[in-house]
Amino acid sequence: MAKEIMIRRLGPADLEILLAIPAELFDNPVSRTQAKAFLKNDLHEIVMAFSGDLAVGFASGSILLHPDKEPSMFINEVGVRDEFQRRGIGKKVTQALVDLARDLEMDGVWLGTENDNTAALALYRSMDTDEVAGVYFGWDGALDED
């Protein structure tokens, strides 16, 4: 029988949980310094999906402040372990961030993905979203793939 997937929002007290997550879930190994700074900052959010004690997915977001607009949330990244993909986990963690942004009364939630990222496109198209064609620009390697 498959274990139930539990979704959990992490905060500053959860540093050791984040540090214990094996590197293959994220693009790179979790850095203590960066994880601590991320979790301490009220403008950053991360929700994790767990199957028992195993972290199987996550979504991270940043609250964007503007001098002339209400805050909005940008979803930075969504990831699911390969062996747990196509089980709705990506949708659950993404929806958890959307729900959090709504609870915090953000003025919208948005993200971007590449035109050839078929898994991400399928995920976001399966949700109640508005799709807008766009163009990416980056400086200093910001758009380089690891």
Write down the overall mean pLDDT: 92
Outline: globular
Uncertain regions spanning at least 5 consecutive residues: none
Taking Cα atoms only, what radius of gyration do you get, to the nearest Å?
15 Å
Cα separation of the termini: 36 Å
SSE pattern, N- to C-terminal: EHHEEEHEH
SSE blueprint:
Elements: E1 5-9, H1 15-19, H2 32-40, E2 44-51, E3 54-64, E4 72-80, H3 89-103, E5 109-110, H4 118-125
Parallel strand pairs: 4-5
Antiparallel strand pairs: 1-2, 2-3, 3-4
Give a short overview:
The chain is of the alpha+beta class. Helices cover 25% and strands 24% of the residues. The protein is built from four helices and five strands; from the N terminus they run E-H-H-E-E-E-H-E-H.
How is this structure best described in words?
Helix 3 (89-103) links the parallel strand 4 (72-80) and strand 5. The protein is built from 4 helices and 5 strands. The protein starts with a strand and ends in a 21-residue tail after the last helix. Strands 1-2-3-4-5 form a 5-stranded mixed β-sheet, sandwiched between helices. The chain has 146 residues and is of the alpha+beta class.
